Amino acid sequence: MSRIKLLLVEDDLTDQMSFKRFVKREQLPYDYTIAGSIAQAREILASDTGFELILLDHSLGDGTAFDLFEHIPVAIPIVFVTGSGDEEIAVKAIKQGASDYLTKDLEGAYLKLLPMTIENVIKTKMIEKELEAYRHQLEEMVEERTIELKREISERMQIEEQLIDEKERAQVTLKSIGDAVITTDIQGLIEFINPVAESLTGWRLEEAKGQHIDSVFHIIYEESKKKVVNPIARCLAKNKIVGLDEKVLLINRMGTEYSIQDSAAPIHDKDGIIQGVVLVFSDVTQARRLTKELAYHATHDPLTGLVNRRVFEQRLNRILKARNISGGQHIFCYLDLDQFRIINDSCGHTAGDELLKQVTSILHTKVRTRDTLARLGGDEFGILMEHCSLERGERLANILRESIADYRFQWDEKSFRIGVSIGLMQITEEFNTLNDLLITADASCYAAKDAGRNRVHVYQPNDADIKLRSGQVQWVVKLNKALDDYQFRLFKQEIKSFTDDEGDHYEILVRLEDEEKQLIPPDAFIPAAERYGLMPKVDQFIIDNAFAFFAENSNALDALSLCTLNLSGHTLGCEWLYGFITKTIDYYGLPPEKFCFEITETAAITNLNMVTAFIKQLKERGCLFALDDFGSGLSSFAYLKNLPVDFLKIDGMFVKDICEDPVDFAMVKSINEIGHLMGRKTIAEYVESECIYNKLNEMGVDFAQGYWISRPKPIHL
Fold first, then answer.
1. Is residue 386 part of a domain?
2. N or C: less crowded end of the chain, CB within 10 Å?
3. Domain check: are 599 and 651 in the same one?
4. Residues 593-644: pLDDT tens digits?
5. Which of 115-124, 475-484, 489-498 shows the highest mean pLDDT?
6. pLDDT tens digits, residue range 34-52?
7. Same domain, residue pair 526 and 652
8. CATH code at 449?
9. Residue-range definition of the domain harbouring residue 519
10. Quick one: 404 and 316 in the same domain?
11. Strand, coil or helix: what is 503?
């Protein structure tokens, strides 16, 4: 494969490094240039227009990808890259000229789709160029040949004394050109047919001469198969040049079909009286086939052959808009395969692709002929059942579920069982927009997963659980916008030492500022961010902006004893996390010993080995670690001696009642003593009264944090 010159426009250093590693690891034939901003990309494009493809990230530091569109030459195809949940932005990009799009995921798996996407986009661009060149060539040839033949044949009719010579020259010319040519008299009887026309119609000149044009030139519409009015008859009737409609087939003498395009022009004598017609046509079967293939790929999933998400959503929209006109009941099913990730990760993407094909075959055999079955992305499918009752739709959904549950996937002498979780809903007047419909269907599907997987969840109006999930989905758009528009605000809360005062010690907290400048607490949006995989982006934003604050405010850095930043369990599972933290610290030139990363006990014990290795790596660089919510786990002390943290944050549910509850008092006292025995310093949170503070001081707890000490204060970036 020849090397491809491409431009990557991406401001995220981690994503840049992931791209470089992926290209190197896969030995991809890419000669790439990387632009880290809109401004840099403009400079590169101004000096070098020889790129064969641009890989363009939507969200950039100095703008969005749409700010760059007008600076990109039309000839260069664009592959648009968005975050999870940004399908509407990707559709906008396609409408504005992007050739395709990819959606980032947390593990960087979208990079595996990159080679195939780039290859398809470049091939498609080449085909489009070839088709456009071929179309122009055909138009020019038809126009040139028609004018030329009209002139030559008219001259032959006008000059009687040169008839024989002119006829011979015309026939030689007609035989030599690449288009098919038939000439007739004013009754439509064939006078001449050239070799190309002989080949296409199956009639030799000797046989066709004197035959009526309808006997030799039989044409029908490609879609309806109805007969087309012969262009020669139309030309004679109108006495002017006429052409065929698009999508016309020529049925030759042997029954072979050709896609053709043609034009018919009248032949006049020297007095302008029509003497006959010249018909020029060409075989465009190959070009039309390529056009059909392009149209098919634009509307179908290339792996399963099902209609794609765009077409499916168009049909859903049609149902929404036509409900009041057509009436009837319609059902929408949202399907998500269970255990697909296990097969994909353990056996590879080839096995995963084969599984999706086989599942598609199973679904095809069960749905009704009139139903629309589509692949919506990944291992998710959609079914639109038009004119179907809720009861019948539920029966069909359970048949699909049982069929997939009974199926066994075989790969490399291994057998796997899978299942499917289905969200089912009736398309009623409750839903006004396509977005409302999709959000509710997605939430219903995940309700089926949360209820134990391999089941059908039927949405009912006023379903509180689904409305909660739908509300969380709405947060996805808000959170992505907040990340793009820098709407997060950082706060700090003091952590007070009971024994000394070595400098500022506080924890970084986050709030979200809405359109009305009101601050939204984390409890309102963190669950949605965790549910839909956005916490790594949020944590990345907090860390980068906190580090930037200290880099730009040397007084705050000098006064700092220790700054604590939270890492969610979702973020801890990201391979890029260590590299991101260390590179960001180095980039801003910060002392790592002044920063402590706080993880929850639950996140730590979920993957103890991975978390332990990560902590050791960062501690070698000088960073510290705190274990939050300590005491909430079932085996806290059992694993603590192997977890190399520096601080224990005693769970606030024990701290807040130590003045009234002797059990909580004993629990906090025990955690503090054992923590000290293991060499860890202790921090008590939820210190909301002087009594609690004094009790903790008596116990020997090292630090206190809570509203009685200090409320969170904004950090002004």
1. yes
2. N
3. yes
4. 999 999 987 777 767 788 888 999 999 999 999 988 776 554 456 667 778 8
5. 489-498
6. 998 999 989 988 888 789 8
7. yes
8. 3.30.70.270
9. 475-714
10. yes
11. coil
Confidence at residue 635, expressed as pLDDT on a 0 to 100 scale: 46
Cβ–Cβ under 8 Å, residues 602 and 629: yes
For residue 559, what are its two tokens? 């006064």
My answer on whether 491 and 418 are in the same domain is no
| 501 & 554 share domain | yes
Rg for the chain, CA atoms, rounded: 36
Mean pLDDT taken over the chain: 85
The DSSP call for residue 178 is: S
Determine the Cα–Cα distance for residues 52 and 76; give it in Å rounded to an integer.
6
Burial class (CB in 10 A: 0-12, 13-18, 19+), 141: middle
Q: How far apart are CA 549 and CA 554, in angstroms?
A: 9
Alpha-carbon gap, residue 188 to 209, rounded angstroms: 11
Buried b (16+ CB within 10 A) or exposed e, 150-165: bebbbebbeeeeeeee
pLDDT at 714: 93
Please say if the pLDDT value at position 683 is more than 80: yes
CATH code where residue 177 lies: 3.30.450.20
DSSP state of 623: -
pLDDT above 80 for 24: yes
Residues 308 and 274 both lie in one domain: no
In a domain, 111, yes or no: no
Locate 514 and state its tokens.
């809405």
Q: Choose among 571, 563, 570: nearest CA to 594.
A: 563
CATH at 608: 3.20.20.450
Q: Is the pLDDT reported for residue 84 higher than 90?
A: no
- Based on the domain organization, do 203 and 284 belong to the same domain? yes
H or E stretch at 587: helix 577-588
Q: Are 352 and 344 in contact (CB under 8 A)?
A: yes
Query: For the segment 155-182, what is each residue's pLDDT rounded down to a tens digit?
Result: 766 665 555 555 555 555 555 566 888 8
Query: Is 112 part of any domain?
Result: no
- The owner of tokens 């002929």 is 369
Q: Considering its fold, how many domains does the chain have in total? A: 4
Q: Is 271 helix (H, G, I), strand (E, B) or coil?
A: coil
Q: Is the pTM of this model over 0.70?
A: no
